[in-house]
Design brief:
Keywords: Membrane, Transmembrane, Transmembrane helix. This is Lactase-like protein. Pfam families: Glyco_hydro_1. The protein is α/β, with parallel strands linked by helices and about 350 residues long. Helices cover about 45% and strands about 10% of the residues. Strands 1-3-6-7 form a 4-stranded parallel β-sheet, covered by helices on one side. α8 links the parallel β6 and β7. The longest helix is centred in the C-terminal third of the chain and has 37 residues.
């Protein structure tokens, strides 16, 4: 959870319930964010790493050197901006060259990209014991020149344009397309670029359409199957992936999209005070992947899919009947107190009338 859980999905107050969900899901790890300096101000002797987010950039034309270089810039500006200093001691050369060039064209005396001193390079290089990687999607990249007169901008500094294939599935967020093969290529890029560091995939998942209450999330099953399979291929390529965490266990508050984008394996009813959780089909499917530690054979994997849909169909029926419970809650929480208050007011008015009549 990267948000304040007690104000969104009630994670602070439902921690025991959510731990039980994790146990049923059979996961052996869970990613959360807390303020470690408050708990351990002197630190601990353990591994320290950084978690970065990156998409993959694929050249539109594999025979075009300009497109190939543009796709390289896309990843270097995205991932290399922060990863390169940690693993190599400095910003990517292509990033320095392009920002320097744009800065000169804009009439600046120095580059907008800070310069590391020798001491700073020595200090930062090698400071991460592992790389946490958040990955969700891929883009096609082409070369596109931008005038420096447009002003300083991360996007115009790169001199490239991002495209998508209209055939790519886009089940949820407008920016998120399901392109599993890009995951394997990004992991192999990290292996080659940074000396095959230890990698923990900290976030990987897909959202769903606005206000969707469909628990039979077949698109999420397909997404997880594709991306996890490509990650396993990367491991066979020799990439040092140590762990994988799906994003996310629960529906929650997603940045500027609020509650309208749902990434959770469990559906959360935010309209209710106790924020009940309902398992989606992907819960059963992901549980089977964990139990098998991968994909054993096509026939068995197909049976997982069928069982997951059967399970969510039952839960959907329960959720469909839930409005009755909501109405009962409304009667209990709103109607009953209102009627009680009206009775008191009517009684008070009658009492005043009787007293006045007696006088």
């Amino acid at each position: 959870m990267n948000e304040t859980a007690d104000s969104s999905c009630e994670g602070y107050y439902k921690v025991k319930d959510d731990i039980q969900l994790l146990k049923e899901l059979k996961v052996n790890h869970y990613l959360l964010s807390i303020s470690w300096p408050r708990i351990m101000p002197t630190g601990i002797k353990s591994m320290v790493g950084i978690s970065l987010t990156s998409a993959w950039g694929e050249p539109v034309d594999l025979t075009s050197q300009k497109d190939i270089e543009a796709a390289e810039r896309y990843v270097q500006f995205y991932l290399g901006w922060f990863a390169n200093p940690i693993y190599s001691g400095d910003y990517p050369e292509v990033m320095k060259n392009y920002v320097d060039k744009k800065s000169v064209q804009q009439g600046l005396g120095t580059s907008r990209l800070p310069t590391f001193s020798v001491q700073e390079k020595s200090y930062i290089k090698g400071t991460s014991d592992f790389l946490g990687l958040s990955h969700f999607t891929t883009r096609y990249i082409i070369q596109k020149n931008y005038s420096a007169l447009k002003g300083p901008s991360y996007h115009t500094d790169r001199d490239l344009a991002e495209l998508v294939d209209p055939k790519w599935p886009d089940p949820g967020s407008k920016w998120l397309y399901s392109v599993p093969w890009g995951f394997r290529r990004l992991l192999n890029f990290i292996k080659t670029q940074y000396g095959n560091p230890l990698i923990y995939v900290t976030e990987n998942g897909v959202s769903e359409k606005l206000q969707c209450t469909q628990l039979c999330d077949e698109w999420r099953i397909e997404y997880l199957k594709g991306y996890i399979n490509e990650m396993l291929k990367a491991i066979n390529d020799g990439v040092n992936v140590k762990g994988y965490t799906v994003w996310s266990l629960l529906d929650k508050f997603e940045w500027n999209k609020g509650y309208s984008e749902r990434f959770g394996l469990y559906h959360v009813d935010f309209k209710k005070g106790n924020k009940p959780r309902y398992p989606k089909a992907s819960v059963h499917y992901y549980k089977m992947i964990i139990s098998a530690n991968g994909f054993p054979n096509p026939r068995e994997v197909k049976s997982w899919h069928q069982k997951a849909i059967e399970t969510c169909s039952i839960t959907n029926q329960l959720l469909a009947a839930d409005p009755l419970t909501t109405h009962m809650e409304m009667v209990t929480e709103i109607v009953v107190p209102t009627v009680f208050t009206l009775c008191i007011l009517i009684s008070a008015i009658l009492l005043m009338f009787l007293l006045r009549k007696r006088n």
